[in-house]
Design a protein that fits this description.
By secondary structure, this protein is an all-alpha fold. It has helices at about 5-30, 35-50.
Length: about 60
């Protein structure tokens, strides 16, 4: 990984972190419990990292 790729990687990780925090806070503001907000934020992060691909064959 060269320096440019490393910088882009860190930028992407930072962007995902900021979006995840906003998602969590918005969930709590929408009356989700902290536990519910954490679970759906985890799902949000997983979907972002997975690129929308799913191992679930039912939906395919």
């Amino acid at each position: 990984m060269n320096e440019k790729q490393l910088k882009e990687f860190f930028t992407a990780i930072g962007t995902l972190a900021e979006m995840s925090l906003l998602f969590y806070r918005s969930s709590v503001a929408a009356k989700a419990t902290p536990e519910e907000a954490m679970r759906i934020t985890q799902a949000f992060i997983a979907a972002a990292l997975n690129g929308g691909k799913s191992d679930n064959k039912e939906g395919a």
